[in-house]
Specification:
Elements: H1 10-15, H2 41-57, E1 78-80, H3 90-97, H4 112-132, H5 137-162, H6 183-200, H7 216-229, H8 233-246, E2 266-270, H9 281-285, E3 298-300, H10 302-305, H11 336-341, E4 342-343, E5 348-349, E6 352-353, E7 383-384, E8 404-408, H12 409-422, H13 426-439, H14 449-463, H15 470-476, H16 480-483, E9 490-495, E10 498-503, H17 522-527
Antiparallel strand pairs: 1-3, 2-8, 4-7, 5-6, 9-10
Length: 538
């Protein structure tokens, strides 16, 4: 589903600049880049606010990561239950079963055209600022710092898909014929824009009207992520370390609240409201028993469930349950993040004990391919809990408004841990990861070498589950072609007290190594005489 934002004339937007809830007014106004924007500071601020909507568009609640589908469905962690083609339906399954679907003619998890449209708008804004702004230097710098952060954010979306891309640095115009830059040059621009934002954004904004605006620490936190992708370990380490040492952020005590927003863990957040912008995440992934008949589009897999440790830090032996006639697994023995992320048989959701079974009243099972669409059923025996709003009961009548947390403090700790490991600072790597584990009372992991990285990968997968990181992590680690090839996902078919371990795919999932670098789209090749397709796609 494409998220549609209402675009109105500039005067109306300026009139509504002071939000009733004292949160940054994020109604976009990026259709005007002429002199009128610079007639007063409120107009320019409101124009920049339109760039903040990119956080939503590339989020799990938006459309630009994978046309609305969760990229976890391209891993072993998530299964869309529909075989009929469609976004959040059969398309994700088609991509994992038939990876040759990715071509230069189109790829649903590419964002080339949208990204360059956004970059054009930001460059136009920066160019018009240099031509028309009469504001004082400090105000211009704040506007430029925010814009350059978002330019880096969008170029990051391109870089993690393509490596080296076209860099449009001429603010006056985006030329039609421009050659591709190298991956190194692309990451240089991203780093340069982030460094400008870090140097010029405030640590905090003084006015309540600016609540939600970018800060120095949001830019540092994002840099810690981007530099891991660039394999600039020291830069990632330094950025994460500065956020940590600031003392401005902390893990919330209850993991279930980690993605709730407006707390000590949220570093970069996008807030919604009922009249817009809003999203429909609850409607998409709710069980049928929630009162909406077209939910349950995708559900967690047994492979994901088995990544969770027991509450004492040991691994559960799932072998006794990998058969046709098993008893109910002891889910209650698993650590808190499992219970906060997955609706499992026997848990309580919206006041009801979930069954997730054949003919279940609360959570109903259907076999994959039993019908074209899921209609609120589960094909794995589980439903998604994380990111869902359990207090949202009128799914047909009320839109979803829980915030999207683009970066939270737990990720920064994990980013530092990974960078420290790459820099042979194993003690610091262990310490940073163990802080994340301590929040859920898990014992420390003090392994070293390859075993530590294996432990770290699982920790990151569990801590950041369903936050849109796993697929891209496996790509940047160059492990997807190894672990996501010739495998199937599983779940449980529950009938009464009987648990049957089942294949929920019926065919092997695959990953093509050449898709680590997505192809340049045909539309760009046809209209740009200087562009050359990446070698693996010639």
């Amino acid at each position: 589903m494409k998220k549609i934002f209402k675009i109105t004339i500039l005067a109306a937007l300026v009139a509504g600049f002071s939000s009733c809830d004292d949160w940054l007014n994020l109604t976009p106004t990026d259709t005007l880049t002429s002199k009128v924007v610079w007639e007063d500071e409120a107009s320019a601020d409101l124009y920049v606010n339109g760039f903040y909507t990119y956080l939503s568009k590339y989020s799990q609640f938006g459309s630009l990561q994978f046309q609305g589908s969760l990229t976890e469905s391209l891993t072993d962690a998530f299964k869309y239950g529909s075989y009929a083609l469609g976004h959040k339906a059969g398309h994700p399954n088609n991509y994992v079963f038939n990876p040759t679907t990715v071509t230069s003619a189109g790829c649903f998890y590419d964002c080339w055209s949208d990204a360059y449209d956004e970059i054009r708008r930001m460059n136009q804004f920066l160019n018009s600022m240099k031509k028309f702004s009469k504001f004082d230097e400090a105000q211009n710098i704040k506007l430029e710092a925010q814009t350059r952060f978002f330019r880096a954010f969008v170029y990051f979306q391109l870089a993690k898909r393509h490596g080296g891309v076209i860099l449009h640095t001429d603010l006056a115009e985006m030329k039609k014929d421009v050659a591709c830059s190298t991956a190194e040059e692309t990451w240089n621009l991203i780093e340069s824009d982030l460094d400008y934002a870090i140097a010029n954004l405030p640590e905090a904004w003084p006015s309540s009207a600016d609540k939600g605006r970018l800060t120095k620490y949001a830019a540092l936190a994002f840099k810690s992520r981007a530099m891991l992708y660039a394999e600039r370990w020291q830069k990632a380490y330094d950025a994460a370390d500065e956020v940590i040492k600031s003392g401005k952020f902390a893990l919330v005590s209850d993991y279930a609240q980690a993605c709730a927003g407006n707390n000590s863990e949220a570093i970069l957040e996008f807030d919604y409201n009922k009249i817009g912008p809003y999203h429909l995440f609850d409607r998409d992934y709710c069980p049928l028993s929630d009162g909406y008949e077209f939910g349950g589009l995708g559900t967690p897999t047994q492979e994901m469930v088995e990544c969770y440790e027991k509450a004492d830090g040991t691994k559960m032996d799932w072998t006794p349950y990998h058969k046709a006639d098993a008893s109910r697994p002891p889910y209650e023995s698993l650590e808190p993040r499992f219970k906060a992320s997955i609706i499992y048989p026997g848990c309580t959701w919206k006041g009801h004990v979930m069954q997730n079974s054949v003919n279940g009243t609360y959570g109903m099972f259907m076999a994959y391919r039993a019908q074209p669409y899921t209609y609120g059923y589960t094909t794995t025996g589980y439903y998604l809990r994380k990111l869902m709003d359990e207090s949202h009961t009128d799914l047909k009548g009320v839109n979803s408004t829980q915030p999207w947390i683009e970066i939270r403090y737990a990720e920064v700790l994990l980013n530092k841990a990974e960078a420290a490991y790459r820099l042979n600072k194993i003690g610091e790597a262990q310490s940073a990861m163990n802080q994340v584990r301590a929040r859920v009372n898990l014992p420390e992991k003090n392994s070293t070498g390859d075993q530590w990285f294996k432990d770290y990968r699982n920790e990151r997968k569990v801590e950041l589950a369903y936050e849109g990181q796993l697929f891209w992590d496996m790509r940047r680690w160059k492990l997807a072609h190894i672990e996501y090839n010739n495998y199937r996902c599983h779940g449980f078919k529950i009938t009464g007290d009987k648990y049957e371990y089942i294949d929920v795919d019926y065919q092997d999932r695959k990953f093509l190594q050449k898709t680590y670098i997505l192809p340049i789209p045909d539309s760009e090749l046809q209209n740009n005489s200087l562009i050359v397709q990446y070698p693996d796609w010639l």
